[in-house]
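re: ur question from earlier - yeah i can do the single chain one, its not a big deal. heres the input i used so u can compare w yours
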Amino acid sequence: MVKEHRYFVYLLASKPQGTLYVGVTSNLAGRIHEHKEDLRDGFTKKYGVHRLVWFEEFAYIQDAILREKRIKKWRRSWKIELIEKANPGWSDLFEQVV
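and the output i got, formated as tokens:
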């Protein structure tokens, strides 16, 4: 029996067109909850970046990590374009993943 794994690359925003954060996790709902509740010190807590605006799922962690690293190197305008293709209203997608 092969255990199926799920990994996620995600983008958070402080508000539409606001501060952006890129992350990777195997537990999207849990990790976003940590961001929203400021349970860990760091960038998202310091800058109030709590809105899940985009995510992508992967079966293999190495693929998710590679995607995260690539997106982190992107220009801000490319990240905004990625978000707006899937979520033009910059809605918080957290309720979709819990």
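The domain at 7-97 is CATH 3.40.1440.10 (GIY-YIG endonuclease). not sure if urs matches, ping me
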